[in-house]
Amino acid sequence: MRVEINKESYKKLQRRFPWVYKNEIVNFPECNAGDIVDLVYRDEYVATAFFNPLSKISARVISFEKEKINKDFFKKRIEKAIKKRENIPSNSYRLIHSEADLLPGLIVDKYGDNLVVSFTTAGMDNFKGIIVEILIKLLNAKGIYEKGDNIRIKEGLEVVNQTLYGNVDDEFIIEENNKKFLTYLKEGQKTGFFLDQRKNRKIIGEYGDKKTLDLFANAGGFGIYANAKYTKFVEISALACSQIEKNCELNNLKNYEIVRMDVFKFLEKEKEIYDLIIIDPPAFAKNKKARNGAIKGWKYLIVNSLKLLEDGGYLALFSCSHSITSKDLLDLALSSSIIDNSNLEVIEFLKQDIDHPYVLSVPNSLYLTGILLRKWK
Questions:
Q1: Do 43 and 99 lie in a common domain?
Q2: Does 348 reside within a domain?
Q3: One-character DSSP codes across 49-116
Q4: pLDDT computed for residue 190 by the predictor
């Protein structure tokens, strides 16, 4: 099936941008969600894509070359993704990262012999059986668990959580950089753990050794890496708080406190002073419409955290939303420091770890940005 695209989309595809939006389609074909089509411009072949008439992103490129999309195609792509990750310093890492591995809508995280997968596009969902078969053969997986993602709704798919093969551990101990973390593979956020912050945890952990404040702590990774004389974790999720407790025990962290509370309310009341504060919230702005509210929320967090940060102390900021960029964080930090009557020095620019590739032709693949700052009067 051939789908004609407009000039604007053609120019983007020439730069290997992998998405075609609904308003860029010249002729809308009658097809089922996830059908494979050839994208053409003025009768010239441009790319092969999954097509979904239900989605705002109508076409997602799976190849910029004319080739058969079959079992052998997926096997080669998956083998390439595995090879790229041969030297990750952990027993747990992202094996396949959707468009960044030229497999749009496929996420695979490896936890030892367990695989946790998500199929977020109708096209990839159509090949679920074949992909599971390939993963079993290539990785000798003990079990494969499918984690539902609400983005499936936009693709006209049901959100499902299910075991696709074998037996998957309910609990698993991640080992990275001489640290250990308990994670629940079938519960919690993402596919069990924030694997994308592995490198950043190590970097941030080298700063601050007296009192650490870990906001939106999730499983406690940043605070545990810091290994300070005293650490305070703030997290609203009961499940995550239980995880923090167990992870502190696993890593022999002695002097700590876990506060189960909304971070915004916590900052209204907190008076203690810290030498390292980490702000790593969930995505406030999942799209451009939510951006203004996210900016206000970020401003509140930074201004009130600076009040609790000692002179010479370190502040780490992380945004996991493509709508809040590194420049936004810098602008927010500057305006907040003016209110605090202090100066902020940039120590490190940070991004997601290499098992979550940032591909230049796919701007959205840089979704996690961070900055480590030092405050001085």
A1: no
A2: yes
A3: EEE-TTSSEEEEEEESS----SHHHHHHHHHHHHHHTTT-SBSEEEEEEGGGGT-TTEEEEEETTEEE
A4: 56
pLDDT, averaged across the chain: 94
Out of 42-56, 206-220, 231-245, 279-293, pick the least confident.
279-293
Residues 127 and 246 in one domain: no
Instruction: Judge if 366 and 306 occupy the same domain.
Output: yes
Question: Among the three residues 63, 92, 111, which one is the final residue of a domain in this structure?
Answer: 63
Cβ atoms < 10 Å from Cβ of 177: 12
d(CA 271, CA 268): 9
Helices assigned H by DSSP within the chain: 7-14, 71-84, 122-126, 128-139, 198-204, 221-226, 238-250, 263-269, 291-306, 326-340
pLDDT of residue 337: 97
pLDDT of residue 322: 78
Let me know: does 197 contact 278? Beta carbons within 8 Å: no
Pick from 40-49, 70-79, 145-154, 349-358: least confident:
145-154
- Count how many domains the chain has: 3
Q: Which domain holds residue 50?
A: 2-63
